[in-house]
Amino acid sequence: MKLYCLSGHPTLPCNVLKFKSTTIMLDCGLDMTSTLNFLPLPLVQSPRLSNLPGWSLKDGNAFLDKELKECSGHVFVDSVPEFCLPETELIDLSTVDVILISNYHCMMALPYITEHTGFTGTVYATEPTVQIGRLLMEELVNFIERVPKAQSASLWKNKDIQRLLPSPLKDAVEVSTWRRCYTMQEVNSALSKIQLVGYSQKIELFGAVQVTPLSSGYALGSSNWIIQSHYEKVSYVSGSSLLTTHPQPMDQASLKNSDVLILTGLTQIPTANPDGMVGEFCSNLALTVRNGGNVLVPCYPSGVIYDLLECLYQYIDSAGLSNIPFYFISPVANSSLEFSQIFAEWLCHNKQTKVYLPEPPFPHAELIQTNKLKHYPSLHGDFSSDFRQPCVVFTGHPSLRFGDVVHFMELWGKSSLNTVIFTEPDFSYLEALAPYQPLAMKCIYCPIDTRLNFIQVSKLLKEVQPLHVVCPEQYTQPPPAQSHRMDLMIDCQPPPMSYRRAEVLALPFKRRYEKIEIMPELADALVPMEIKPGISLATVSAVLHTKDNKHVLQPPPRPAQPSGGKKRKRASEDIPDCKVLKPLLSGSIPVEQFVQTLEKHGFSDIKVEDTAKGHIVLLQEAETLIQIEEDSTHIICDNDEMLRVRLRDLVLKFLQKF
Amino acid sequence: MDPECSQLLPALCAVLADPRQPMADDTCLEKLLDWFKTITEAGSSLLLLQENPCLVELLCHVLKPQDLSSRVLSFSLRLTGVFAAQEDCFQYLQQGELLPRLFGEAGPLGGAAWTAPTVRSGWIQGLRSLAQHPSALHFLADCGAVDTIFSLQGDSSLFVASAAGQLLVHILSLSMRGPAEGPPGLQADDWPACAQKIVGHIEESLRSTAAPQITQALNVLTTTFGHCHDPWTQVLWVQLHPLVAALLEKDPVPAAHSLVDLLLSVARSPGLSSSSCGLWETLAQTLSHLSPTQAGLLALGILKLQDCPQALRAQAFAVLLQPLACVLKATAQGPGPSGLLDSTSADSVTADILLPSKAACVGLLCRTLAHLELLLPLPQRPCPWPQAPLLGAAVTLLQLCGGSGSPASDEGRQLCTLLLGCVRVQRAALDFLGTLSQETGPPELVTQVFAVLLEYLRSPDSSPTVLKKAFQATFRWLLSSPRTPGCSDLDSHALLFLRELLPVLQKRLCSPCWEVRDSGLEFLTQMTRRWGGQAGFRHALLASEVPRLTEQLLRDPESYVRASAVTAMGQLSSQGLCVPPASPEHPGGQQKSLLGELLHILSTDSEGFPRRAVMQVFTQWLRDSHADVVGDTEQFVAGVLQVAGQDLDWEVRAQGLELALVFLEQTLGPPRSHCPYAVTPPVAAPASPLTQALQPLCRVRLFEFAFRALFDCDRPVAQKSCDLLLLLRAKMASSSSLQEPRSSPDVASVEAALQRWRAGDQAQPLGDLEPEVVLAVLRSMDLEGLRGALAESSDHVEKSPQSLLQDMLATVGILGENEADCY
């Protein structure tokens, strides 16, 4: 059993598991942090961005000044943003049988895999994962395609040139594999390969293993997966949460008794408690708006935004913010808000019960009804006529490199009355802000990551008790910035096995058993013999028939009737030779009684020696040795077959035959 | 006993004795018993029984085999004890063989009723009341009660077990008090048999291997030494001391908590001279034998003792400091003494207790901090007080809990993992840190204190309770921050800190959690009250958004927050720190004055707390002659009294009277001091006659308000009003310009109106009153009588024994009717 690790990002995993005869890809996350090296794509021409000076080498060589621009001491690639794909060379991806998706953030690389690697298998995911994943992809494609960029920079990726660049471009990994965003056509084609599944549904893969999605509590439709055969169980835990937010709670019980638990997608900000961060978010929002400033919240169109809107729904009246407009701008804003209301069965219990009242499960419906929350596909069109300040704007993309957020950063960045509040934990806010420097607006960092933290993990592992834990290497040591925080790492016994990008891991357990079915008529023919109380044995003679990873013992064919025909003859030759077998022996030989029996049969001068494995009975007169061990008995005598047979018969007296 | 009660008693006794008529409410049995206790304390029980034979009949009746409720049985046992406390009555009951039948083997003791804990408890309490005289001791000995009490010490009901222990102490002390010929000698061999039996039982229990028995014995001894201080207690201690000391040789020490209690009780007992009995040695030994978790309480007790050898005190203090020393050692950046304890020998023990489990670690640290906090303000606290290391320890603990500590050692890291985010330790450490502000510390440590406080105030993870404590500790440290002599302003460091603090406070005032907004406002009020007049503070505060945010919180949805905002705004306004209400909330640009805003709250707020807060602010403003009030005081007072008089919340009305009182004093001059030595400020006596001085009071309709309050359905309001009017009448009497009382049609109509008010019809207003009319009405009113009536508790009529008996009978009567209905 092997694990191929194709991604180095612990929360955007992409691993391939070879288990029995199947090849299963676990998630295909897309590392978008690569986009931070690029200049933002403004919706409207930005004189500031277009006038940034080109970058030149120390010696004044300016051959890269078209590709690289400098802003406040940082160098950015002036090109269409590109993404860092999972490793494609480590394993032939066309051999992947299935892809299991755990949540909508972890499927963003799907089109790259399904459309460009010869993949012919099936993808499994829950319905909300697919629908919201589609929204995220649609938004991404839209953001990038609506601002076409003529220029595509590739010179800087040359290894020899990259070495000369300043950090972080110099240290960027695998730049040659970075790819532009896929197209909507590719998205549609990739999504068409998905088969929908429900929680706890059992899916057979080629009869060899069974996979089952379980609720993971992190997002709408998010799942952990169990991959099991009859005697082995691998759990794949990716992006789980124990907090009570909107999704169905995490199913922990089903993870018990795993041989291996692959643990990914823990919180990216283990020191920030989501509750405290929501409080910070509300306080800073109110403080800004009360001072007459605007608040910008860069966010994804689904996920935490639902919880934020719910908190604000409760908070705005108490904070006297009822008159402040809230805008949600995304090409998929409308679909996201509406989808969230129809996935009742995937929601937490509280929200499910609302549906029966009937009420919309999320209170943002009421915010929309009362005109407190308005949503627009983009800032062009209706929005510009409705726009009123001070206000709060939720919009993407959290990387601040594309999407409507770029416009608001340019618009509001100059005033210290305004605030940008970062709630998505995926991007370093300092790096995200770098191309906007100098910036007068206030920046607040309230990352809200509801995924498991290390305390919760240690409780979970105690509860679930897997034999082995496998996790990204980042989880096996404290974060570099807080090396004394021994609590910020996975602590379990035995210590977890860790992996890193482009590594192949042999998982630490051997398969020892395989289930075999026995046909009823064959079972009827067995004659069990009790050898110990409660344990019976029977010998079986049968034909082992294996098909589709299922093994069946069938009755042996009857011995062929002797016949003269040639064809018959050949047929009988094919039949396995069913000779009568020697009986099997069981039991143990009590040495003292054995010696007494020997004496009774006329042997004298018997010596017994104890050895590490058993005993040696020495018949000195006959120059014969009898070695008695746990699982074998040897009679060693010199060419005296008569004596050997006599002794053998005496030994056999003590054993049972069947 | 009054005749009415005597008449009711037989019927009641019959009801009690009737098993078919159960008492629904056993509190009336308690009240009945209390009543009998008062009667017997005042007079002869014997006479009572002879005059009311029904009582003895009741006692006899409960002995008959029947299905009587355990409550009534228990009541009867206790009642018997109350009667038998007097020796003649005891003899009387003894003659009827009633006592042995009730308390002896033949009584409930052997029957099925004994399974009810209330009966066992009644039996013990009966004996406790009865055991007041030598005859009782004989009785106890004869009926073998003491053995039963021994066994009841281990009763399954904790109440019974504890009462049994106390009864033993009582019997022991009674028997040692001795007969009339004098107390028994100091030789234990000469002690009465009963005492010897009890002491023997204690000795046996102390030798036992069973922890519960040892605990019982120790508890009995603790009570004994706590209550009896006669010389015999010293003999008892000398005799039992070796047995107690022997307990320390066991590992683990059994019943450690009870042992600590006993030793402290002995040490505190004035009857024992501690030095002669080897007590100090035992205490020292105990300190070293007990685990740190158990020894803390003993150490604190020792340090609180007035006279105690220095070495023992030092040992006790070391025990108390050990856990913190351990924390300091684990987190020390380099080797070297932490400064808290020199010896490190015992550290390993504490480390063993601290590190393995979170619960033990947190418990020990919280107890240690609480103990030290108790010790700090005491005059006998250890000297020199290790202020600097303790400050260091508190700061370190807070850093560990907050995740900002960076311990170098493995133990430190382990400790960090255990304490991270632990709210209990955070609260205890913040409390302790606040208490430490009474003393100062080295400047670099004080800087650290402010840094850690700011960290807590800033951290989004601080829970509301932790935050509140952080605010409190911050205020205390700001109070104690070093300042130039003669100047009460904040020093430059504190001002720098304040500049960092105000943005945090600003954010906290916008918190979604109302507790946080509330404690932020309380903190602001405290700071403004203290430094509102100081230039540095004013400058920093006015440069921030805090005053404007506070004003917005007057409209907070949470009533507690509104109340705190009212108080804070009142304080800010008193100090001239208010900014005009902001425009976003009032887009029309209509700017209300704060006075108007508060009046609006007073008349419209649906919750009581903000309205009470407004009244307090107004009273304070009137007292301080606030600028908004001084302009037209009469209009202000009239307006406030009118609104407050209609308020549904009695505290608002009572506060209205407080305001009226301030106005009255300001108008008529303060009340004359009765103390001959008091310095009376030279107040110009009102030159004008009293009637003229009363004019303003009449104009603001103060009297209508006060008279209405006089008949208020809430007693405190009526009392306050009564006091106010009495004060006014005293002024009238002292005033030289006393005018002849005169009766006029006006007076008659006012008096008639007041009569109607008293009867509950307060619809009709009094209209404009002339001072003369007021004076006449005041003279004619029986205010003293009213005050007396109000001073009685509201249920004084219903509390009479007669009413109790009637109630009890009525309840049963109703039951009886129901029964009749059934047929």
UniProtKB/TrEMBL annotation, chain A:
Family: Belongs to the metallo-beta-lactamase superfamily. RNA-metabolizing metallo-beta-lactamase-like family. INTS9 subfamily.
Residue intervals of the Beta-Casp domain: 305-433
Lineage, broadest ranks: Eukaryota, Metazoa, Chordata, Craniata, Vertebrata
UniProt keyword annotations, A-Z: Cytoplasm, Nucleus
Entry keyword annotation includes Nucleus: yes
Cited CDD domains: Int9-like_MBL-fold
Name of the protein in its database record: Integrator complex subunit 9
Regions annotated as coiled coil: none
Signal found in the keyword field: no
Domain of life, per lineage: Eukaryota
Compartments where located: Cytoplasm; Nucleus
GO BP field: negative regulation of transmembrane receptor protein serine/threonine kinase signaling pathway; regulation of cellular response to growth factor stimulus; RNA polymerase II transcription initiation surveillance; snRNA 3'-end processing
Region (Disordered): 548-573
GO cellular component annotations of the record: cytosol; INTAC complex; integrator complex
Protein's organism: Enhydra lutris kenyoni (northern sea otter)
Automatic annotation (TrEMBL), chain B:
Keyword Hydrolase included in the entry's annotation: no
InterPro entries found in the cross-reference section: ARM-like, ARM-type_fold, BRAT1
Keywords from the named record: Cytoplasm
Principal subcellular localization: cytoplasm
GO biological process, one term: DNA damage response
One GO CC term on file: nucleus
Annotated localization: Cytoplasm
Protein family membership: Belongs to the BRAT1 family.
Full protein name: BRCA1-associated ATM activator 1 isoform X1
Source organism of the structure: Enhydra lutris kenyoni
Gene (name only): LOC111145892
